[in-house]
Design a protein that fits this description.
single chain, alpha+beta, seven-stranded mixed β-sheet, six-stranded mixed β-sheet, 13 strands
Length: 314
């Protein structure tokens, strides 16, 4: 796997670009059957979802089968890497590649520290209130409301959020106060239009309890290599054409006309960065057996407790 650091013009690190090979299907795999989704981890159902017929939202049922691919983090590690999201990103990627249960598969990915969730508190609400509002509630079942929260990319925990008074959360609350709290690892899933917590349920609970903004590292798919190559060629061609256009203007009007580099250069840089970092839809694999299999799994894991329009019409 190739790893490339992504930085801003000023050199500030913003993410880690990954090119993954030899992983045709991930251990944490999203399957689809028409409007129905199944997230399975090494064949264990983790999440069942049914999209409304009018596409206004998603009903879900969450099992207790999810296991994080990131091993438990020691307090000493948190202190050693305090605030260094660059090093945390490399550490998380190492575990995502080596541990079972990871969503990584063939293609290009970005693990970024620039989640829009960190910028959307426009009402300047207290951090505890804001981050609590971004959590999708419900266990084992719940609802993702696309009508009221379209594009907000809320956060869906893959297991129940721990209580603020629990032992692990208490330990993380101290780290939150000390500024050594490790980041929360998220995975953006386009089919649900929300983030899933891959690791850090207790850390997010601790940040909320301390009313502080958590550090985040968010994983999503980016453009495949052939698209990047083609897009780069187009961007460079446009850049060269702009310089040639300005050169023609300078020939006619003299050196009072700029050479165009100050205009075309930033545009080229922006296009290239977009190719490296822009989100692409999450891959889903066809569910073997289709809708009938999805209903069988739903009946089995919910013990016939979950009633959806898909089930009632079956």
């Amino acid at each position: 796997m190739r790893r490339t650091d992504i930085t801003r013009d000023d050199g500030t690190w913003t993410g880690l670009s990954l090119e993954v090979q030899a992983r045709r299907q991930p251990d944490l795999c999203l399957f689809s059957a028409e409007r129905r989704l199944l997230l399975a981890q090494q064949s264990r159902p983790v999440l069942l979802a049914a999209v409304d017929e009018d596409r206004c939202g998603v009903e879900f049922w969450r099992t207790d089968a999810y296991r994080s691919p990131i091993p438990p983090l020691r307090a000493g590690t948190g202190r050693a890497l305090a605030g260094d999201l660059h090093r945390w990103a490399y550490r998380f990627v190492q575990h995502l590649l080596a541990s079972p249960g990871s969503p990584l598969h063939d293609g290009r990915w970005l693990l970024s520290c620039e989640s829009p969730l960190l910028r959307w508190n426009h009402g300047r609400r207290p951090q505890a209130e804001y981050w609590s509002s971004m959590l999708i509630e419900g266990h084992p079942d719940g609802y993702i409301d696309w009508f009221m929260h379209a594009g907000s990319w809320e956060i869906l925990p893959l297991r129940p959020m721990p209580d603020a008074g629990g032992g692990r959360v208490k330990a993380y609350r101290k780290q939150a106060r000390d500024g050594t709290l490790p980041p929360v690892l998220l995975w953006w899933v386009s089919g649900l239009d929300c983030h899933l917590i891959l690791d850090g349920h207790a850390r997010l609970a601790a940040a909320i309890a301390e009313s502080t903004s958590p550090s985040l590292l968010s994983l999503h798919r980016t453009a495949p290599s052939d698209e990047v190559v083609a897009g780069t060629e187009r961007a460079v061609h446009f850049y060269e054409a702009e310089l040639a256009r300005f050169a023609g203007l300078r020939t006619v009007h003299g050196t009072a006309v700029p050479d165009g580099a100050a205009i075309a250069g930033p545009s080229l840089a922006s296009r290239l960065q977009e190719l490296d970092t822009a989100q692409r839809p999450t891959w889903a694999w066809p569910l073997p057996g289709g809708e009938a299999q999805w209903r069988r799994v739903a009946r089995e894991v919910t013990a016939d407790q979950w009633v959806t329009d898909a089930e009632s019409s079956a």
